Amino acid sequence: MHIQFQHANPHSGRESLILRFDGLLSDQTVCVLVDAGADVDTTTLLDEDAGEYLTAICLTHAHLDHYQSLGTNLGHGPPIYTGDGTARILEDVLETGREHHGFTQTEEVLNRLEPITSWTQIAPGLRVHPIPAGHTPGATGFLFEVTDDDVRRTILVTGDFTTRRAAGYPGFDLDLSVEVDTLVLTAATNDEFEPTLTDAIGTVLERARAGSTVLTTASGLTGVQTAYLLGHLTDRWDDPLPITLVGHAAKLYDRLEYTVPNVTTTPEFSSPTDVLTAGGVTIAGPEVPVGGSSKRLFESIRDDPGATLVQLTSGPSDPLSSATCTTHHFTLSNHPTTDTIDAVVDAFAPIQTIITHQQGSAATQYKDKYDSFVWATDDTDCYTLLDDAGWTPPPWVTDQTTRRVRATATTNGSVLTNGSTELEYSLPTTARCNDVDLAAEGLDLEQLRTQIPPRPGPRLSNGASETKADETSPMPAETSSESRSPKDTETTETQTVEQSLAAIEERLESIESAVTSRELTAQVVDAGDGTILLRLDDPSVDLEHGQELRVRLSSRNLNTDAATDQ
Asked: How far, rounded to the nearest angstrom, does the alpha carbon of residue 413 sit from its chain's CA centroid?
């Protein structure tokens, strides 16, 4: 048995690679492509004259950087294995890819699509099983098992992963009951995802609670995840909030058969007023509203001082900030923390570790970090992991490291009780969880409850307000009616009314200020000696010397690049 690997696009996303297995078929090398991102070309990576054929493609999830070249790598007729969640939405995802990214061969990809939920044989002696991966709704990793006579080898591919849930789909499990020989590790990290997610959800809720028309722009799957969190959170708080998914996000939500409280879907709409409402949240794509549904909706609220735009982007972008409405921007790149990366390697203690989705120093930092042979290469060379002599170390590894790793490795792999017997692992399901666990999704529920206190409930007979309890707001200690005097009750009522009136007055003042303010255009004049003047375009404006003005800087060069509604 010989096992090799090869990066399929090391100078692009570096999320795609080829696994090669020699010895399973007499006249052919079994080749499996994991993900098909930008610039993957198996016609140049594989040598048909040497018997190398693409036997299968395994797709981890439906993000563009992982499926972009699927349609151009079907020459050998491989099946495309993916998890059930990704398979459900792939038709809609590929249609968006065709419209906005020039994706080709959509029908052929769908014909070759094979959703898998359990062990599936790729070739004699090679089978694959999907593994929950978190990251995004429906995402999976893959566990490969290779058997030769009475020896078993395993390769675990994490794909883009997190240990957090993603809109109810389970996260990556560090307690898999399997020995991992080779770990293909996606090493993209984000230590700030959870506080950023909490801040974003809190901002959306806070603005909607204040009565603002809130437009949240996001990619399709991020939109689904955002609706899931908002819907279940407000339901738990007994705080009805109209949440409307439109366009591509609505289609994905429906395909995945979600039924989240407070959430409705409108795949197509005639007028923005059909889906926008004061005190509600509308979720649309693309991430930055310069095209698609989100552009149409943004144009209708752009000059509304009482409206809010919340942009949720997945990476570097140029969010819009020049508008009369309030604008916010949050980067939500759902990857694990650096500590989680270390925990994965420690949990599985692999002999071989291959770093993907990182380049340069971000990848090479892992080379000497673990008791494992760590491959952090940046080329399309084919590297041997296992041959007749055993596990092969990278060429740069010292003899000391080689001895240390081999001392902890199982020399003969996992021995089967019988060469024809398959020993089953207890592996987690990739199906969506039946329960709702918002903390497991990455939300800081205590912070959100502090930021957004409960709405005053209906009056009780004793004058107090009734509030629904949840896991973030423990019930207060009981106080008997006999221990409260009428004066105490009257004081409580008075304070509650005064607080409510004060909040209303503050909101009215904010609205009055936004509505009555004037917007002027001025040119910047450098008068020298560090003095900057503003020259008004309209000289008839009546301003007095010493008058204080509030200035908002804006750019006239808005980003007009095409974007996708996804």
From this structure: 36
pLDDT of residue 118: 95
E strands present in 80-162 = 80-82, 113-115, 120-123, 126-132, 140-148, 151-157
Residues across the chain: 566
CB neighbour list of residue 321: distance below 8 Å, 6 or more residues apart? 327, 329, 554, 555
CA angle 367, 359, 193 (to 5 degrees): 95
What pLDDT is stored for residue 331 in this prediction? 96
CA separation (Å) from 339 to 189, 191, 281, 346? 9, 9, 35, 10
Do residues 295 and 280 touch, judged by C-beta distance below 8 A?
A: no
| Position 66, amino acid | H
Where are any strands of DSSP class E within 218-357? 243-246, 263-266, 281-284, 307-313, 326-331, 352-356
User: Cα 546 vs. chain centroid, distance in angstroms?
Assistant: 50
Q: DSSP letter string over 489-528?
A: HHHHHHHHHHHHHHHHHHHHHHHHHHHH-----EEEEEEE
Do the bridges between strand 352-356 and strand 263-266 make them parallel or antiparallel, or are there none, so unpaired? unpaired
| Of 498 and 314, more confident | 314
Distance, CA of 303 to CA of 301 (rounded, Å): 6
Q: Is the pLDDT of residue 532 over 60?
A: yes
Give the pairing type, strands 281-284 and 213-217.
Answer: parallel
Q: Which pLDDT tens digit goes with each residue over 77-124?
A: 999 999 999 999 999 999 988 887 888 889 999 999 999 999 999 999
Give alpha helix (H) positions in 136-219. Answer: 193-209
Return the number of other C-beta atoms located less than 10 Å from residue 296's C-beta. 18
pLDDT, mean of residues 6-18 = 95
Q: Give the containing element (helix H, strand E) for 127.
A: strand 126-132
* Per-residue pLDDT at 563: 41
On whether the CB atoms of residues 72 and 104 are closer than 8 A, the answer is yes
Cα(428)–Cα(431) distance, integer angstroms: 9
In CATH, the architecture of 192-333 is 3-Layer(aba) Sandwich (3.40)
* Phi, psi for 364 (deg, rounded to 5): -70, -20
Helix (H) or strand (E) holding 408: helix 399-408
The structure tokens 């698609």 sit at: 292
DSSP 271: S
Is the Cβ–Cβ distance between 181 and 447 less than 8 Å? no
pLDDT band (50, 70, 90) for residue 465? very low
The architecture of the domain spanning 2-190+335-413 is: 4-Layer Sandwich (3.60)
Give this prediction's pTM: 0.81
CB neighbourhood size of 147 (10 A): 22
Comparing CA positions, the residue from 295, 330, 336, 293 lying closest to residue 314 is 330
Residues of each domain in the chain carrying CATH 3.40.50.10890: 192-333
User: What number of H helices and E strands is found in the chain?
Assistant: 13, 24
The amino acid occupying position 220 is G
Helix runs in 211-326, H state only: 220-236, 247-255, 292-301
Q: Which segments of the chain belong to CATH 3.60.15.10?
A: 2-190+335-413
221, 136 contact by CB (below 8 A)? yes
Per-residue confidence (pLDDT) for residue 64, from 0 to 100: 92
